């Protein structure tokens, strides 16, 4: 395009004042939605608002891209199979600073803001903590003006919707794109072929070296969709690029030429299944072919895009690791390591040593769990069939790696077996954690304890062989989503009290609130905010569940995926204990409690689904027992997602973080709740330890065994039956559940849960921690009576949570691992 014609194409500047926004909304209702003012629905309004925001983001986004190009900055690419973004309308309006203008405009038109916001479908492209962390990181990268881009999959169906049917979980597909996604830009021209299958041919390259060609493959096309990611109070807008699978035209042609039109279209469907659905399990690696294909599809497209952009700009691959860093979010994208090797060897004809140097210097890997069943492995025969060239490269990596290990530890065959990238027990499997470790220059855990456990247990041999490679990066959360958006009244109170809003960009400034913990008037205001939020939550629960909550009771919450290691069942053991005490002592002087649960179970995880049913069966009995009244209520809020979290968290007073010590890598819900002024009852696990350190031991309810005690207990033949026989109350509670007290229609229903505890070894040590948990819960009850002291401690929680901003986490990654800087 000539200079003259491109200046003719200059768009109108998209301003943030009210008249400009009003005009934008009117135009979009008219020209984008295509409706007359009389016919517009709440969803039409949402679309118009979203497009009005998007216009403003687009301008800043292009400027950001240009700025990065001109300054020739080093960039980071965050590769993740999951981005649990949630809704974008409110968050973008707040980050752009136009939320108040929007509110006023909607009032002018007598529109209901929250009803409009509720028509937005969540981008639920993640399971839980790992996916939400990726979303918080994107917010922090943009807010810190750092050149970081996300790469992921544009799943057609995100995390399933959870319904309750007679207390059981039922899954429904999440058709989130049904009404269109106003935030995305389809890029039909950004299209890469992804190959599968075929065979490898060895030949001699003109440079004289042996070379490899992967041939006779099948293709699926990856098409890009871009989503702008705005920072808070900055003009920086970064990009999230999501891939969608499209059938390859070449591939179809075979069948078209053979005259089989229907077959051709069938095949089209088949290849497009690759980005159809998010795998809804985060606990067990199933080794499913479709999942492996998703992983490779995703990393192949991303690497082609990254390498293409790099070479187009620099005309060389030699400076790759100086100009880009790639972060692997768990092992799910770890095939990127052999894939980059393949590109460097087979397309750029680098030597193995040079290719390896560039690869290791480019990649780093974050581990998010040590639970053995969640560590990914892929059967060698499957890789051989789908990705034969990658398998060759993995074998070569392993050969060279084990040669180095053998050199350092001569004669230590056992060590070689332990460290190999290939496990040889039964069907050979590639160990993705080992692969990711060996191919990265930094490997990190997500909280201090977790990182130490990586060094001491799962990766102990690797720590010895590559000292310094394992580093810690304690997780964080974005205060823009989890305070500014979640809790407007608390945000207002803090800003009014401190006289500024800088704390939203530097969360350590919350420490300025510390003196106000001793100010009775401030405590009163802080309490009023919490009370307001509790009433709001009670309204929501009444609407969604038809249950009336007592907003003067203690709101006690455990909200997270349902997992045995997270011990929702231990929470229930306390609920039943408390229930029986109330039932049998009507005069007992106690405080009213509402125990709130929310969370999804993986569809194939039978024990987790049974725990949901038990919560609901217990709720049925407790909530309808006239002897209890409203002194105790139990409630399961269905379909826990980002939007529901935004409603529950600001209303919570007690945050349950009760995993068996050593099992929860970090937790991030613990941070969201404490930031919003909930007190934690927790074990010394994951980031709880660091939260307690920050907020002060006096302001944290701690119980249970620590990680070392748990591991000693297990070493010394832990006997849950010993605890069962020694504690009458515990025995009674377990006998009630086992005997059908809560399930008279099916007395044996919960036997599998009881068996796991009494005859299955109680892997997560619920019985060992029960007594101390009950003791600690009694302490909670005692303190809640003293509402001034409770509030004082709650304020000190909020005031001391600054460390857990994801801004701090991202700055550490940027400095220590990615070596990227602010521009
Ligand atoms: C594993 C698998 C196995 C195959 C099927 C799909 C799938 C998806 C995810 C996972 C790994 C989940 C690991 C995870 O979510 N870890 C959580 O990461 C959080 C962020 O670091 C952390 O706060 C939680 O403690 C940790 O459980």
TrEMBL record:
InterPro entries per record: Glycg_phsphrylas, Glyco_trans_35, Pyridoxal_P_attach_site
EC code: 2.4.1.1
Domain of life of the source: Bacteria
Family: Belongs to the glycogen phosphorylase family.
PANTHER family noted in UniProt: GLYCOGEN PHOSPHORYLASE, GLYCOGEN PHOSPHORYLASE, LIVER FORM
Function of the molecule: Phosphorylase is an important allosteric enzyme in carbohydrate metabolism. Enzymes from different sources differ in their regulatory mechanisms and in their natural substrates. However, all known phosphorylases share catalytic and structural properties. Allosteric enzyme that catalyzes the rate-limiting step in glycogen catabolism, the phosphorolytic cleavage of glycogen to produce glucose-1-phosphate, and plays a central role in maintaining cellular and organismal glucose homeostasis.
Name assigned to this protein: Alpha-1,4 glucan phosphorylase
Native organism: Thioflexithrix psekupsensis
